[in-house]
Batch of 3 targets.
Target 1
Amino acid sequence: MKKIWIPVALFVVGLIFLGMALLDTTPDVYAIYGLEGLSTEAMVETLDEQTLDGNIIGAAILETELVIHTTSGTNTYPIDADLFYLSIAPYINSTHPCHNHNLVTCRGELANETVSVYIESADGDVLFDDDLTLYDNGFKGIWLPSDIDATITITYDDLSVSHDFGTYEDSGTCMTEPLKLS
């Protein structure tokens, strides 16, 4: 009798594993979004410039790490301690409050528009001075030094805004509300 149960048990276990493999339809999210082999900073930029499907990926850029959620679990990736990612979304009519940038759900109103951005540190160093085209989500991220105070000035057509900010561990990586163009 034992001789019959062993092959039956192995067959049942094999069917269970086969069924689990067939039911696992989790796509390789890292391959879909081109993240394989990238540094944390490159993953942030790659994710930020794409329109992401919230059904298969969640991603947020915090002050010190990138957090990626998939159906396979959550992974965190540290950001170089000398860097700070500031994602900006200037607007004219409406925005949403935001502290840390969600790479999937954050949306700004000036999608694909070009703005001029000037960032100067409190010490007078020019940190950034260039035209940027905002992504499809209406945001654009800029890598800055961490642990500084600075002023950002954004110009769009004949509208502009200036705002003081910091790049500290509690500063927030998403800047929306202070960037109302007028």
Note: Confidence is low (pLDDT under 50) at residues 7-26.
Target 2
Amino acid sequence: MAKKKLRITQLRSTIHRKKNQKLTMAALGIRRMHQTVEHNDTPQIRGMIRRVEHLVKVEEV
């Protein structure tokens, strides 16, 4: 069975955001606006998304 993937796209800037939010975006591998990355759907990734959910768009692939 194939694992579910999440496609995460940055929609809002990290300028003037808290340091932990900037570090979370970097940990997700997102460096610039409108960049998209794919990750396996794990509880760790879901937790990271929850921390920056106001900055990103998430789609299940």
Note: The two ends are 14 Å apart (CA to CA).
Target 3
Amino acid sequence: MAVKTYSVPGISCGHCKTAIESEVSALDGIGSVEVDIDAKTVKVDLGSAPEDSVIEAIDEAGYEVAGEVGV
């Protein structure tokens, strides 16, 4: 299981956190999702879900992924 952390500069409040967590958690195979409002990051245990689907889910929630943190 791969854990990825994405930079999402548009995160600013609890609504952002809830929207992203809801969209990503709905994907099949996701292990866990943690949104850090202060750091503006989304940490995802991909489980069996493809990475592209996670990025698409964050986009669907209304936020743009700026890149992967730590790469």
Note: The mean pLDDT is 95.
